Amino acid sequence: MTATPQNQPQELQRQLTNRHIQLIAIGGAIGTGLFMGSGKTISLAGPSILLVYAIIGSALFLFMRCMGELLLANPHFHSFSDIAEKYLGSWARFAMSWTYWLCWIVTGVADLVAITGYFRFWWPDLPSWIPILGTIALLFVLNALTVKAFGETEFWFALIKIIAIVALIVLGVALICLGHTNDSGSTASVSNLWEHGGVFPNGFGGFVTGFQIALFAFVGVELVGTTVAETKDPETVLPKAINAIPLRIVLFYIGSLAVIMMVTPWNEIVPENSPFVTMFALTGLPAAATIVNLVVITSAASSANSGIYSTSRMVYGLAQSGDAHRVFAKLSPRQVPRNALTLSCIFLLSALVLMATGDGVLEAFTMVTSMSATLFVAVWTAIVWSYLRYRRREPDAHRASRFRTPGGSTTAVGLLVFFALMCVALSLAADTRGGLIAALVWVGAVCAVGMARERRRG
User: Fold this and answer.
1) SS3 per-residue string spanning 404-418
2) pLDDT grade for 9, boundaries at 50, 70 and 90
3) Given CA atoms 215, 216, 221, 225 in this order, what sign does their dihedral have?
4) Could you say which of 5, 53, 114, 289 would form a disulfide bridge with 253 (CB–CB 3.0 to 4.6 Å)?
5) How far apart are CA 422 and CA 424, in angstroms?
6) Which residues, other chains included, contact 297 with Cβ-Cβ below 8 Å and sequence gap of 6+?
7) Extended beta strands in 308-437, E state
């Protein structure tokens, strides 16, 4: 066996502070689906989309409490793949880690598709390879520096999102107070939430289909769980980040979308366009829509940035446990798993193929987001399943926990039912069914491979 050079770093460094983690948590809770996909979800569900986001947000807050209790129950847990291994078996670590890797690869592809669409706001005929390659190269460089550089980048990306959404809400309230009238003759008013067909204008079916893309808007909410190994004082930082989720959902999702539909009736919002860009264009300021388009590009880049970070750490962990080639377990002199980072960036190039063969930006975005959402649901399900095993095996640890899940096992069972219903919702429409099936095939295959590996190891 070759000796390890003394100057070769062998462990990830705890360089992420409370400031980084809080903003990473916010960034994870504000996905590209909010900026890019909310136009379509509004067209499907109308004002009832507010209830859709409230339901999903409440469920995922409880899910995060389950995950937080598990992560803090054992100081040796570095991520939720460690949790899966302990409570479900080594096959689950293999399956969850590779599935989470694919989660963020597919999400990264969705972000790159969204970025392409945003750039076409300025240059409609821009070849898709230009923004895709440019974004991948930029994010590789940012992530190859140090984990602190990633934290700083994500801090500022998330801060831009927050400022943009708060500005949108303030602008919307001002337009409502002034009774602004748009080009179609509609007047900004709170009553727009119920005067155009009611809160459920497309019936229960429209309400259910609203869950399809809305679910994707929340992917990444679990991201703080992958930062534990590189976080200072996780016992204090993690609970703070998780407990702030409900307020963030009310402000960023429900608040922003309610204001958008008050200013512009839901039936006048164009599904293909970002309602955030459209909203700022109503001010009449020539630069307003351009500025917001830059903001939503930053948001998509933020999501892709998080994805590249997560996937590189997952592959690094897989290599350390022998479930990926050992070359991916090497760290650069800056304590970054650069080889794993390179692998993830290479797979992001599949966005080029998707854009070359797809029918358009929205169609491609819908397909990959439904696949991504299903993969994330699979990971979330494994974490909740692990929580139930933990409760049964370690009741004393649960009683001693300072961050217990409200409702305990009953909450966990309810979450499993909710996740199953989300898969049913994704199966109802043809444009999301393909992504659902592809994701389920992957999950079945990777679980089978993981179990076969576990049996061979004895």
Assistant:
1) CCCCHHHHHHHHHHH
2) very low
3) positive
4) 53
5) 5
6) 115, 118, 119
7) none
**Both tokens of residue 429?**
């429409």
Beta bridge pairs of residue 16: 231
Q: What is the pLDDT of residues 202-244, one digit of tens each?
A: 888 889 888 877 887 787 777 766 565 556 666 777 788 788 8
Phi and psi at residue 324, to the nearest 5°: -145, 165
Q: Decide if 19 contacts 154 (C-beta within 8 A).
A: no
Give SS3 for 181.
strand
**Binning pLDDT at 50, 70 and 90, where does residue 429 land?**
confident
What amino acid occupies position 238?
L
What length is written for the chain? 458
Distance between CA 314 and CA 337 in Å, rounded?
Answer: 10
**What pLDDT, in 10s, does the model give residues 374-402?**
999 999 999 999 999 999 999 888 888 88
SS3 16: strand
Please name the residues in contact with 56: beta carbons below 8 A apart, sequence gap of 6 or more.
211, 214, 215, 218
Question: 106 falls in which pLDDT band (50, 70, 90)?
Answer: confident
The residues near 115 (Cβ < 8 Å, ≥ 6 apart) are 131, 132, 135, 297, 300, 301, 304
**What does the alpha-carbon distance between residue 383 and residue 391 come to, in Å, rounded to a whole number?**
12
Enter the tokens of residue 194.
Answer: 């119920």
385-390: long-range pairs with CB below 8 Å, 24+: 385/87, 385/88, 385/416, 386/70, 386/80, 386/83, 386/84, 386/86, 386/87, 386/88, 386/92, 387/66, 387/67, 387/69, 387/70, 387/412, 388/412, 388/413, 389/87, 389/88, 390/70, 390/73, 390/83, 390/87
CB count in 10 Å sphere of residue 148: 16
Closest to 9 measured CA to CA, from 377, 330, 391, 361 = 330
**Which secondary structure element, helix H or strand E, spans residue 171, and what is its range?**
helix 147-178
Identify residue 252 by its one-letter amino acid code.
F
